[in-house]
Amino acid sequence: MRQGESMSRASAVPSPTSDSAFGGTGEPTPGCQSHEGELDARTPACDRGVKRFAKRLRRVYAKEISSDPRTFKKSVVEILRRHLPPFAGRPTEEAITMAAALRTEGREWREIYRLVMP
After folding, report:
1. Same domain, 58 and 93
2. DSSP assignment, residue 3?
3. What are the residues whose beta carbons fall under 8 Å from the beta carbon of 9, sequence distance 6 or more?
4. Any idea what DSSP says for residue 28?
5. Would residue 38 count as lying in a domain?
6. Domain span at 14
7. Does one domain contain both 103 and 54?
8. Is 26 left (phi over 0), alpha (psi -120 to 50) or beta?
9. Which residue pairs, CB below 8 angstroms and at least 24 apart, start in 59-62?
10. Most buried among 9, 14, 49, 56, by the most CB within 10 A?
């Protein structure tokens, strides 16, 4: 892929949860959680899933990679960042959304605080 060109098969890039990417059921690769139940991408199962994803990308996009590996990798990382949290913008929190809606209706901050603050 040359500078300025877009990935010709960008829509074919499998998502990390797709069947074709990990050979799974469309759900995230199991085993990506620590013993406390928190997500931990450093687990062996996540590592295997990412390796399979990278292997598939190397196979499907061999031509693009061979022509400009640095740009290809940069493009894939950019796409992956866009599709994994944290996302741009404010976090979705019900109280904030409600406060914004009430303010749009013209309500005073004093009333809004009373309604949305615990």
Report:
1. no
2. T
3. 60, 61, 64
4. P
5. yes
6. 10-83
7. no
8. left
9. 60/9, 60/12, 61/7, 61/9
10. 49
Q: Number of folded domains in the chain?
A: 2
Angle between helix axes 109-116 and 94-104 (nearest 10 degrees) is 150
Put simply, whether the predicted model's pTM sits higher than 0.85 gets the answer: no
Cβ–Cβ under 8 Å, residues 4 and 39: no
Shared domain for 21 and 67, answered yes or no, is: yes
Q: Whole-angstrom Cα distance, residue 91 to residue 42?
A: 25
Same domain, 76 and 95: no
Widest distance between CA atoms in the chain: 61
Query: What's the pLDDT score for residue 86?
Result: 77
Residues 79 and 92 in one domain: no
Mean pLDDT, 10 residues at a time, over the chain (118 residues)? Answer: 46 45 49 57 85 96 96 94 80 85 94 90
DSSP 11: G
Where would I find the H helices in 61-108?
62-67, 69-83, 94-104
